[in-house]
Amino acid sequence: MLSWSTRRKLVYLGVVGVLVFAGLVLAGETLLTTTPTCFDGKQNGTETGIDCGGSCARICSGQTHDPVVLWARSFPNGSHTYNGSHTYTAAAYVENDNLNAGAKQVHYSFQLFDDANSLILEHDGMVDLPPLQTVPIIEPGIAVGNRTVARTLFAFSEVPVWYTVASTTTSALTVTNQELAPDGSRLSVTLANNTISDVRNLAVAAVLFDANGVALAASKSFISLLSHRSSTDVVFTWSPGIPNVVRAEITPLPSF
User: Which residues contact 251 (CB under 8 A, 6 or more apart)?
Assistant: First the structure.
């Protein structure tokens, strides 16, 4: 039979053992438990899907809309040739119904056909889709040899991955002082950056339309730096003789 002092020692040892065991379990859980992130391949934290939704910038696919191609056309570049080949500018208007969302480096293709509906060529590229409802995609200088483009198709070759993007920069870029030459050969505008931050690697698209809303010509320009609270003049040029131009749409496409 154990003495009272021996039993007391055993009780103390038991209590210490329990405390040590509990400490080891807590330490193990701390070491094995990682903070949820948006890149761990698991649905955790506030996420509504695997690494998407909640506090993550990536939007879950079930909460987005696929971009819609409104139209696609190709425009001859007049006397401009490349190694003796005629060149065209291919353009498309894409509708983005994802509010305050953008997608980066989305693969696409333009298909150019002749009047016999034979494929002349397929031109592949990548584009960033900023948080704009209508996104112009313009590819100048496509060489087609001696053939004539009669029809153009545009399609994305992959499903865009959408991320939440603030549209403040896009909405703070304003276009004023549009001046279009009577023959449609020259368009000048003033582009202003009304934000408190510099805008870099800015693309600017210009499309000319007739009275029926049919696109007649397209071009794009790049601005490496547009400083905060500043403006710059942008000029677009085409071959003379574009008929029936009644309006121009200029769209700043900032990187994000």
Answer: 132, 134, 135, 136, 204, 205, 206, 207
